[in-house]
Amino acid sequence: MISRLRYTFREMWASLSRNLTLTVAAVITSAVSLLMVGGTFLIQRAFDNQLKLWTGGVEMIVYVKNGATPEQVQLVQEALLSQDTVVETAEYCDEVCSFAVAETLFAADPTALKNLRPQIPSFFKVKPVDQDNGEVLRSLKSGFIRLPNVTDVRTPDDAVDLLGKLKDTIGVRILVISVVLLFASALLIWNTIRTAMFARRREIEVMKLVGATNWFIRLPFMLEGLLQGITGATVASAVLLAANNNWTSGVESFPANSGLKAFVVTDNYPIWVCLGMILLGAAVGAIGSATAASRFLDV
């Protein structure tokens, strides 16, 4: 058993060495494509963080002063829901919930978050009856802001609308390009294995003559493709984590009114994305090499 494993890894390394140029090309292509896949997920998550308040058709945020009693909060909610021809729902987010949202919105500005915590307001997420036309709801803004214990009323501005459109546009396009590049990676790995098997065709013929099974012959080539996919994914993961950390550090220096303080991903999400990239890279490498090893075994 140990001798077979030693043979498998020795032959895999020999094959990688013989086709070094193709191997490097396959790894680089895999890394670029997987980097784009991972980057797409991080960009989408950053958009979600930036638009956290404006999800599910919410068109207005009504802030209630810190320390408001349940009775005072109830009065505000009743006033909002009384506009039943315009307001469909008014979901309340208490101060604990509000701080959890602020942790996302101020992820790149811990100082501002620390200063906000003692006086953070609660708020209502107001969803209109007609989600395609928030103008009527916005026209009531001046009336809502005069409600007792209401400190501010916000409606989505042009920047929020633009971010929502960018999220849908950019995410789809980058993902399509990533899928195309992943296919190119699989083809490169496929071609690398085909070339390696063709270069060793006489050796493979001799092995089959002395009784070697197809799986015994295939295994080193399949491991070669698997290693190429995992190596590309590992390189892509390292670059993605470094880029994400660099972007997060850069956002900290942005002006407070830049509107991009929440456009970061600071939790464990990047780690999970990287693990997914490694699994995807392994799958691409394994599929490409297994297909080639099966297709060109009779060389």
Descriptive account of the structure:
With about 300 residues, the chain is α+β, with helices and mostly antiparallel strands. It folds into 2 domains: about 180 residues, no CATH class; about 100 residues, Alpha-Beta Plaits, CATH 3.30.70.3040. Helices cover about 70% and strands about 10% of the residues. It has 11 helices and 4 strands. Strands 2-3-1-4 form a 4-stranded antiparallel sheet. The model has no long low-confidence stretch (mean pLDDT about 80).
Our estimate of the beta-strand percent is 5-15%
Number of helical segments? 11
Overall outline: elongated
Tell me the count of domains.
2
- As a percent range, the share of helical residues equals 55-70%
> Average pLDDT value?
80
The helix/strand series, from N terminus to C terminus, equals HHEHEHHEHHEHHHH
What's the end-to-end separation, in Å?
27 Å
Q: For the CA atoms, what is the radius of gyration? A: 28 Å
Instruction: State the total count of DSSP E strands.
Output: 4
Major β-sheet profile: 4 strands, antiparallel
Strand order of the largest sheet: 2-3-1-4
Class inferred from helices and paired strands:
alpha+beta
Low-confidence stretches: none
